Amino acid sequence: MMEGIADAATGVVAPPPLLVARLLERPDAFEIPLAAFDEVLKKTSGLLLLFFTEDPVRYRETLDLAVIAPELLATSAEPMRLGVLLPAAARALQPRYGFRRWPAFVLLRDGKYLGTIDGMRPWEEYQQEMARLQQTSPSRAPSIGVTVRSADGDDDHCH
User: Fold this and answer.
1) pTM for this one?
2) Cα–Cα distances in Å, from 55 out to 7, 16, 76, 138?
3) What is the tens place of the pLDDT at every residue in 78-116?
4) What string of DSSP letters covers the chain?
């Protein structure tokens, strides 16, 4: 069941753009609704490329990344699936991964963060960055948030 794109003025939900809908027809791609996101990550093994979509009227590059996504899957050094986050879910989850440009790809291994490629880039850069990210160890995502300070003033450790 696709969530679609809600019009901010009318609240009417339109189906996702054709290129995004075609992605969701692929056997290696699936939509991740917001309510199911954490459960999907718990059950995910191997590489999962999250595609954070946006309204293509506001961010035309969404359609470009919809074309690039299958190429990234095809050229990956190891099997990878594609989880598509339609705009409402993408906006809600963006702070968790801290990217600043829309649309974006976030790469996970076994549900854990490897890195982000945000915005439109040259194809060679996608290839290089995907190869690099696949070789990295999972880490904490650079989420957007507030600075955490301990009550005793000992801020030398991660919270």
Assistant:
1) 0.82
2) 9, 9, 27, 30
3) 999 999 999 999 999 999 999 999 999 999 999 999 999
4) ----EE-TTT-PEEPPPHHHHHHTTSTTEEE--GGGHHHHHHH--SEEEEEE---TTT-THHHHHHHHHHHHHHH-SS-EEEEEE-HHHHHHHHHHHT--SSSEEEEEETTEEEEEEES---HHHHHHHHHHHHTSPP-------PPP--TTS--SS--
* Per-residue pLDDT at 83: 98
The answer to whether the CB of 20 falls within 8 A of the CB of 53 is yes
Tokens, residue 41: 């990550």
